[in-house]
Amino acid sequence: xxxxxIFTRILNGxxxxxxxxxxxxxxxxxxxxxxxxxxxxxxxxxxxxxxVVELAAADPALLxxxxxxxxxxxxxxxxxxxxxxxxxxxxxxxxxxxxxAHVLAGGLDEKSLGA
Length: 115
What we know:
Layout: H1 6-11, E1 19-22, E2 26-30, E3 38-44, H2 52-58, H3 60-77, E4 83-85, E5 101-105, H4 110-113
Antiparallel strand pairs: 1-2, 2-3, 3-5, 4-5
Helix pairs in contact: 2-3
């Protein structure tokens, strides 16, 4: 059995976090090192899946729940426009191998997006 991830430790109350949303199977917390004005991390209550590819293959309903929670949080904390990022693998920047999505919003304009 692998060691509990930081997200599992947060769920177990071992590490504090600011919860901004939750469902039966997922939790959204403010990121402790935000990369945007709104930066929230959404993850399942299970650490069974290491990345989004594993999650999508094994439990698409849970992936849908995570995306739905991300949408709800973005609507509450920003204007509803957001980026949803899943890093998959260490070379893509994944450092916690408990699937999670980054909800990023604010601080961008059309010029910076190349629109």
